[in-house]
Amino acid sequence: MQIFDAAATRTPLGFERLVPALKEAFAGRVSVPARHVHQVQVGQDAGTVLIMPAWSEAGFMGIKTVNIWPGNGARGLPGLHANYLLYDARTGVPLALMDGDEITSRRTAAAAALGASFLARGDARRLLVLGTGRVARLLPAAMRQVRPGIDEVMVWNHRPESAQRMAQTWQAEEGLNASAVADLEQAVRRADIVSCATLSTEPLVHGEWLAEGSHLDLIGSFTPQMREAAPDCFGPGARTFVDTEEALKKSGDLLDAMACGQLRQDAVQATLFQLCRGERSGRTGAGERTVFKAVGNALEDLAAATLVWQAQGISRST
What is the pTM assigned to this prediction? Predict the structure, then answer.
C-alpha cells in the first residue's frame, strides 16, 4: 500500500484538473451510502467520528474518516483530523493512504467552483470570501479557474487581523488584488460572488445586501446548528441550488429558510448531479440572484483520491 503525505496528496489536485474531475463524477455513476456518525466519549473528552464511503464504476473505492474534537483548541491541537483509504473496488485490496485534510479542503473549494461555473455570471469580477480557514484560503484560486475575469478579492473575518493576514498572503503568494474588509454589508453589496466558508452558528449575510445578478456560495454550514445566511437570502428573487438532496436535511441555512417560509423544498432548482448531467439549467439571465448550498459528498473525496492515485502512474495491481 502506498502512502501519500500532505504534499504528495496536494500536488496532483490543481483546480484545473480537480474541477473537471468533480464534474465528471457528478455526471457519472458513483455509489455513496449515507455517512456514519459516531459520538466518542472518553472521560471528559468528547468527539465525533464521520465515516464516509464511496465506490465508482471506474473500479475504485474509498473511505474517509474524519475525527472532530472541539476541545483540541485548548491543547494547541487542530480540531479536525482526516485520512483517506483508497481500495481496488474489484478486489477490496488496499491501494493507498492519503492525507484526508488536503483532499477535503481542495475538493470542497473545487465543488464551490463547479457550482459557480453553472450559477455565477460569466463576467463576475469581484469575489468576497468570508472566513480565513483552510478552505477559504483556496477559494480565489478555485473560483478563478471557472471565472477567470475575477480581478478583485475581498476577505472578511470576525477577527480582522486574520483577514488582513489572509489578504497579504494572497497578494504575496498569488499576486492577487486582495484586501481585508471590515464593513461586511458594504462588501456584500459590491460583490459579484459571495463565498462563505466559516463555522458560524449565526447568519452573517442578509438577503437585502445581495446585489442583483450576484451569486451566493455557502459551503460552511454542514449541520443543523450551523448557519451563514439569513432566511431572506433564499426568499423571493433568489434561485436556490444544492450540491445534493442531503443538504435539505443537514444545513441550518436551508432548515431555517424552510421553517420561516422563505424556501419551499420543491422550489430548489437543481442538484449538482442534475446540473452536471444537463438535466436542469443553471443561471438563465444576468439579473438573476443565485444561491448554492453545499454540505459535501463522499463522491468528491473519491474523485480527488482517484486523481492522486492516477497521477503517480501506478498500476492497480491486486
Answer: 0.93
